[in-house]
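Record format v2
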Amino acid sequence: MIPHRINKSAVQISAEVISNKKFGPYHHMVFAVGEMAANSRPGNFVAIAIGDSQSAHILRRAFAVYRAIDKGPMGGSIELVIAPHGQGSTWLCSRTVGEFVDLIGPLGTAFGVPSSNANAMLIGGGYGSAPLFALAELLKNRGCRVDMVLGASTAAKIFAPLEGKRSVSSLTLTTDDGSAGIHGQISEAIPRLIREYKTEVIYSCGPMGMLSAIAKIAEDFDIAHQCSVEESMACGIGVCMTCVVPIKYESGIKMVRTCIDGPVMDAAEIIWDKKTVTDLLHS
Amino acid sequence: MIPHRINKSAVQISAEVISNKKFGPYHHMVFAVGEMAANSRPGNFVAIAIGDSQSAHILRRAFAVYRAIDKGPMGGSIELVIAPHGQGSTWLCSRTVGEFVDLIGPLGTAFGVPSSNANAMLIGGGYGSAPLFALAELLKNRGCRVDMVLGASTAAKIFAPLEGKRSVSSLTLTTDDGSAGIHGQISEAIPRLIREYKTEVIYSCGPMGMLSAIAKIAEDFDIAHQCSVEESMACGIGVCMTCVVPIKYESGIKMVRTCIDGPVMDAAEIIWDKKTVTDLLHS
Amino acid sequence: MTTLDYSTKIGSKRFSNPIFTASGCASSGQELSQFFPLTDLGAIVTKSIMTKPRTGRNTPRMAETPSGMLNSIGLQGPGIDAFLENDIPWLVDQKVKVIVSIAGETVEEYGVLSRRLRAVSGISAVEVNISCPNVENRGQVFACHPDTSVAVIEAVRRNIGGELPIVAKLSPDVTDIVEIAKSVVNAGVDGLALINTLLGMVIDVNTMKPKLAGKTGGLSGPAIRPVAVRAIYQVHQAFPNIPIVGMGGVSTGRDALELILAGASAVSIGTASFGNPNAAMLVKNQLSDLLIERGFKDFRDAIGFAHRGV
Amino acid sequence: MTTLDYSTKIGSKRFSNPIFTASGCASSGQELSQFFPLTDLGAIVTKSIMTKPRTGRNTPRMAETPSGMLNSIGLQGPGIDAFLENDIPWLVDQKVKVIVSIAGETVEEYGVLSRRLRAVSGISAVEVNISCPNVENRGQVFACHPDTSVAVIEAVRRNIGGELPIVAKLSPDVTDIVEIAKSVVNAGVDGLALINTLLGMVIDVNTMKPKLAGKTGGLSGPAIRPVAVRAIYQVHQAFPNIPIVGMGGVSTGRDALELILAGASAVSIGTASFGNPNAAMLVKNQLSDLLIERGFKDFRDAIGFAHRGV
Ligand SMILES: Cc1cc2nc3c(=O)[nH]c(=O)nc-3n(C[C@H](O)[C@H](O)[C@H](O)COP(=O)(O)OP(=O)(O)OC[C@H]3O[C@@H](n4cnc5c(N)ncnc54)[C@H](O)[C@@H]3O)c2cc1C
Ligand SMILES: Cc1cc2nc3c(=O)[nH]c(=O)nc-3n(C[C@H](O)[C@H](O)[C@H](O)COP(=O)(O)OP(=O)(O)OC[C@H]3O[C@@H](n4cnc5c(N)ncnc54)[C@H](O)[C@@H]3O)c2cc1C
Ligand SMILES: Cc1cc2nc3c(=O)[nH]c(=O)nc-3n(C[C@H](O)[C@H](O)[C@H](O)COP(=O)(O)O)c2cc1C
Ligand SMILES: Cc1cc2nc3c(=O)[nH]c(=O)nc-3n(C[C@H](O)[C@H](O)[C@H](O)COP(=O)(O)O)c2cc1C
Ligand code: FES
Ligand code: FES
């Protein structure tokens, strides 16, 4: 029998938008969520319904929690960083203060914190940096050294708010087009930085390609690597089996749900190579 | 070949909501429509898209024009009276000033005006009274006597704005529950009123059951009767054939589109009896 | 400016662009001509015509459904005589490309209709509607079975003569649409139209009866697009050289592109025109932008692209 | 307060209310138990289980569509051993009514699964999924043909023994669903589950390839409700005494009532639970209000009411 309750602190609420500000190409949005905030850990996400009851969009969209503030002036609040991409996220970004959205959270696994203090490197791609700032604060309070590396295709797409930088020992930026920081893909810079900062554990969040490249590096250096993955999710609560990633299992493969066994997962367990997965599926 | 152009003054525009006021159980809404207003005649309707582009509602809703003002301070405007009934009308009634809706109009036939002045009776049920006020003004300006009879299930549901009453020689109210005017169904009162006012032509607008009852009376008195019918419309512009009513045709039946050959039709041509229609369809 | 060869072919006929109206969704054309010049369409597909005038079904004839609608018109129409006298000359006069859709209750009726069309000039193709769900007896849906489908197509071929392309319109409400397609391809059609509506029903929870007078109706609109894409993909995979007129829930250029990538040589706009009389023009413009963005110089290179890989 | 007898029956088994979860849309139950007490459900229908553990298909496994979605899970599951060891005892322990859904690649596999279920206590019925579209070969969809459907049902009957009601789950993707229903009714099923998903496809217009790794997927959600209502209506008309578990796009009490009026004895909530984990409870409460409003004192009087007239 399963020992722990699944979705154990998740609740469905109608959450008021209390702030919505453009931040470069992203929207920084704050929602009044009451007690939910107290249960949210860095790495958790929330799932938000799109449109009203007459919307042709029937599925929720998942968003990583950027910050959860337990007791603010408005009660508990949760903050998200949203890239207006397709119809769902664009709809959400156009909600104005005072409107309500249907929100479920907190969901999924959280980043695990090392038992003794360690040198941690936090690597974020695009809006993937969002959940890393709260993690940085947590790690710093535990006495860890926190080196942060943020990358994006171009300078404008790096999400790195001023106050977020407080908790980090170093901050390195990379851009594919060289418009800020190191020129190149984020993963290219990582090996050198690992050596420089004597990194003992990596935390990452961003596009699957980036996570996969970092996983390879972490394996080479033989250091622990927790990544927050992003697969298409229909339900966010573990009932639909759409959001799976392949992990190594006995001599084969097993599909695990990234909404309840993730989004934060041990990168070493995941089978990153698409071809290997296809081969194993058809063997 | 067909002599006149179908939908000949219809245009599709994005119309701004310039007023939205509750009026008893109805909403009185005003839209900025520019030149469209000049082409609108009493009896015409407009078709409005429901929800945004992500709405699960793919069809427009038809609304009779209550008033069209050619040159107001905001340019041309069109006014509607809407009963929030199902999802579409409820959505429309919750639009606020400054929002835009996708609107096509003017559509359909208009009330025909007698060539010489005549005693006209205008009969409206529920929001069906809306298009009759502009007609009353037109008829009065042509020198007709205008007697108006408005009915509804209960007093609150009679739509009869003060300024609308200016143009009528008499106004009679009826309510099914007796809460205002004559107690009973509107059609019960009509024969007596026809005699009293020496009615020569009837104009009606309201639920199909009411129109049918009036058609019977008009036939008995042998007076002309133009009615504005309401059938479920998918397109409003004559391309789908959903909105038909059965009319007498040679020895049988013909289905005509109420969106382009109506909504205003000669009541004497329509086959009102459901059973007759079914029998003719299966003969 | 990037140029795009936007033309397409069905059998021997060429169309200036691949955006058509869907049968039964543009009446006989005049109603839409107030909104855009009909000559901007690749073709207008007329409402399925029968030999005799037909009253159609009782009302209510429609019900809105989530992202779709049901209709049960029951093939109301003026009959072939009035159609050839009034509707066709007007369209031909306007220089609109016309595809005539025909429907019959019997195999013979299709033959009679084909003979009548034989002599008519100005027509670009005949679409044989063997899949209308709005008939009293579903046994009458010829496209439900290969043998009845073939019987109709053969009657049409025998009677229509000449080189007018024959397009068979199929129903998605079958166990194996590829099998039906195969039967009519072997019977010699020049193209396929996919898909007609799905059989559906709405019950009014207030009256507690079916909402439509005809009880069942045909489901159309965006709701059915995934079924259309699947049917087109399967049939194009089996018969890559048979042109497909694709339809089913297209209301934007993106949607049209989806059907084309699946294998459609042309795309008909049906229900979308009810919500937006300018839908066909919107789709036409958006589609051309999307094709150019993706580097296509010839529209026909995009047909069935999802089968080929990048 | 007006009272309503909300109970329903499938074969010999009684359920406290007619709201079930749909197979594959509630996993094994625990995930939803955070949101409402599972005992408030009429029954939980478990995800279709096979003999061996199964990995399922590659990702992406889903695509949102207008008022619907495609899925191609490919029957991922732990296999019957782990299922009977972990999932069933937990549900039985919680006193939840359980309907076990089974799926096989061969007729024999259904037989094996039935034999395993025979001895298990605490199960209320077995739902035989012969209609999953997410298999490599559509020839494997047993519910596409009467003979294969019957073969499976007979294998189940022979092996399951006792009086556990057998419910056959059918596919709407057939030419004549009444014919398939007839075959399994004659083979002795105690009930039917209508409908499974429709086969569909979405093409990603950016990659220009099918969006799902498995190319095709099953279409579910409000988009398909008119097809579900039609199928239930047709089958109930043909077999008024066979209980139907209705499903397909139900997300409100109104929707559930529509299926019930068409002929469903119980209603399963599938895709709606993805958008709203509390959907089943919402439907249950709204439905009971609607029934009471309409003067029903016994839920069972509403079943198939649209056939009977007022
Ligand atoms: C655990 C998790 C955390 C996330 N955190 C954030 C965040 O902090 N900020 C942010 O902007 N976005 C985040 N996303 C992505 C977000 O959920 C949406 O997928 C994205 O906003 C696109 O949705 P859309 O409706 O605008 O686009 P559409 O393209 O219209 O989406 C269509 C469908 O595809 C699915 N989909 C498409 N792409 C993806 C993808 N890359 N990942 C998952 N589902 C996809 C969507 O769920 C949706 O059902 C996260 C996703 C996951 C799974
Ligand atoms: C010519 C004409 C003029 C109209 N004028 C007005 C008016 O001035 N004010 C007003 O409030 N309403 C008017 N209506 C009715 C209006 O178009 C809507 O049908 C009504 O508001 C209900 O729509 P809904 O979306 O709220 O309800 P829903 O029940 O959600 O509508 C569902 C569908 O059913 C159709 N439908 C349902 N009932 C009717 C009906 N009685 N007539 C036509 N279609 C129906 C709708 O078009 C829609 O597609 C008029 C209708 C027509 C045809
Ligand atoms: C109101 C209506 C009437 C239709 N009439 C016909 C018809 O006469 N002949 C025909 O072949 N198809 C007819 N169809 C089917 C359409 O041509 C088309 O195949 C179907 O609606 C799917 O496309 P859509 O989703 O774009 O509407 C009709 C559809 C609708 C909605
Ligand atoms: C993600 C997903 C997984 C499903 N898995 C199964 C399954 O394992 N067995 C089965 O019989 N039906 C399965 N179905 C079909 C549903 O049980 C149901 O028949 C269908 O989705 C229609 O109902 P809905 O519109 O309420 O979802 C699945 C559906 C979805 C969306
Ligand atoms: S999103 Fe449904 S199981 Fe993960
Ligand atoms: S509403 Fe379409 S023809 Fe009248």
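The first strand of chain D starts at residue 8 and ends at 10.
Residues 8-56+74-199+220-307 of chain D form a domain with the TIM Barrel fold (CATH 3.20.20.70).
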